[in-house]
Each structure stands twice: as C-alpha cells, then as structure tokens.
Amino acid sequence: MRLFWLEFKRLTTSLTFLIYAVIVFAFIMLNAWSMVNSHLSKIPQPGSGDYDYIISKDDATLKTNALDQLKLEHHSNEYETYPAGFEKIVSLNKQKQAKVKLILNQAEKARTKAMLARQLQDVDHLLGGHSAYSHQNLQGFSFHPMTRREALHDHQLIMTKDKISGTFARFFADIAGIIVGVLPTIVVISYCYSDRRSKALPNIQAKFTSTGKWLITRYAASLLSLILPVFLTGILFTVKVANLYSHFSINYFAFLQATVFWVLPTLMVSTAVGFLSYAIFANFIGFAIQIGWWLITMTIGARQVSGNYGWLFIPRHNSLHNVAYYYNHLGQLTLNRIGYTLIALALMGLAIVIFNFQRGGKSYAFKFKKINYH
After folding, report:
1. Is 223 helix (H, G, I), strand (E, B) or coil?
2. Which residues pair with 53 in a beta bridge?
3. Is 236 exposed, middle or buried (0-12, 13-18, 19+ CB in 10 A)?
4. Residues 52, 322 contacting (CB under 8 angstroms)
5. What is the CA radius of gyration of the chain?
6. What tens digit of pLDDT does each residue of 176-194 get?
7. What is the DSSP code (8-state) at residue 316?
8. φ and ψ of 54, to 5 deg
9. How many CB atoms lie within 10 A of CB 31?
10. The predicted structure's pLDDT at residue 69
11. DSSP letter assigned to residue 57
12. What tens digit of pLDDT does each residue of 332-344 get?
C-alpha cells in the first residue's frame, strides 16, 4: 500500500498530470456542461417539432432509408465506404453496377429484415466491404424523428429509469470516453520516460519487489490518478443537476456509476497501452499507435453517435434521448465494457512479461541494450 501511494503521489504531482487534468476538465465542460440546461422534465408537447432522432424497431424504416441511400449512390456511382475508419468513395464498373441494380430490385421485394440484410451484404462485398450495407452497420438506417408517442415513452424512461441524472451521466460518459481514450497513453509513457531520464528505472527494477507487484501497483495508482479528474468533474455535474431538478427524484450516484461502468474500461486500455508500448519501444511511438486506434474508433462511432456500442473501443451515446435503445442494448454494452476490461488486463500481463525479461538484464525495449545495474 505504501508503494501504491508513493506512485500515486509521484504521478499526481507531476506537470504532465496537471496538464492532463486541465485538458480533461476543459474538454468535458466545453462539450457537456451546457447540455445540463436542457429541460428534460418538460413533457413533450404535440406539434413542437423539436423531437430528437431515435433508432426505430420498425424494419420498414430501416428498409426505406437503406434503399433510398442505395438508389442515390447507385445513380451517382459514388458509394461511401470506411476502410480503416476513413472515408473512401468507391465507383464500380458497368458489370458491378448492373449487379447492384439487380440487388436493388430484389431488395425492394424483401419481406424480412434478414432477407434484406443478406441482399445488402452482397452490395457490401461488391464495394470491397466497410460500407453502410454490411451486417454490423445496417442498423444505422433505422434513425428517424420521434413521433409524439415515442417522445412520451422516451420522457417516461428519462424520469423513471434514468431519474434525470442518468440521462446526463450517459452523455457525460460519452464525452469523457473520447478524451480518456487517447490522453492517458501519453501521460503514462511520459511517466515511465521520466524514470529512464532520471536513471531511476534500474534502481526501481533492482528493488526486492516482483515485477508483477511493481507494475500492477503502478498501473492501479495510474488508474486512480487518471480517473480522478473525470470523477471530480462528475461531482460538479451532479451538484448542478441536483440544483436544477431539486423538486424531482434523481440518482445522485449516476455520474459515479457512469464513470466506473462506461469510462473506466476505456481508460484501463489506453493506460495499459502506455505501459506496454513503453516496454516495447521505450519512447513515444506507442502514442502514435494509440492515436491511430482512437481515430479509427471515432470515425466508426461517428456513423451513429446517438447509440453505437457493439465492440467499439469508445461506445457512443451522444444524445439525451434514444433512451429505449440504451436499455434494450444494455447487455451488449455490458459485454463491451467487460471485454475491454479483460483486454486491458491482458495488455498489462504482456507488459509484465516484457518488463520481467528486461529486469533480468537481458534486453531493453527494441534497442536490445543491456541494463547496467552497477
């Protein structure tokens, strides 16, 4: 425990951590603070015209939207795809264009979602994959403006299941997840690099402490340090929500729950990447790799920000509505978060193996230099 608090103090008193904390706080406040002023307790009124978009369960909506887009792209022969998460416009030759036309005609006669999905998957294959017509992206065509009935149901879920604060906490977690998906990596690398620069690494490694205990303790201390700005910002949000909705029953722990359940697994991975990449490269190359992963998941997630979980590294729910979708897919999101928690632990396990190898004086990162303990 003494080692844990020593590591915690070293990190939280560093200039790098201070910069990190300021950036995290500013990013969340700038992107989420104004949303708390939304009047969620107000019952949706008929004819207001300001209902949000939600993901429909109606297969007819999905079919109409998907075929309308396919017709437009077929007409212009410009199809949007996202290989590696970045947009690429694909144009087909006459033979493949004819195949798409045939698929379009067949898809219009599809009676079930399964039949439609199989036919549109053929379009995805013709485009080389990574299009909106693939099985995993097809649900994105289900967005439509809420009807009054759907808006009332959405409002009921906000007031009863979310207890208002849960709605804001979900939006808060979406924003916080974006920033903690990348910044902790460079903080950890900088933290490790400072040991090397001060020549403290050989002394640390030479202590009578197992590599596993040393690295796990440092990892745990880093997680507590790096989640702290998110947690403290969440307290500010809780206070504001409590003041604005003092006459309603709210969940005072919603922001804490969202931080632990939604944000922490992402933070665990980005932190673990920092330790592992430093063990391998002993420099800041790992941060460039993490930026690449972050950009890819952000690009993919941007296709459906109002509710997009699956296996995204950073799950998206950048909306105060679409609440029914959240609860209907909560199991999927839970598996996602458990999965990335396990990935983070696996990455740290690999880092322990590498550090342990280095601790024996056999090699040092990719440079394969001997560590001198004398």
Report:
1. helix
2. 145
3. middle
4. yes
5. 24
6. 999 999 999 999 999 888 8
7. B
8. -135, 170
9. 17
10. 95
11. S
12. 999 999 999 999 9
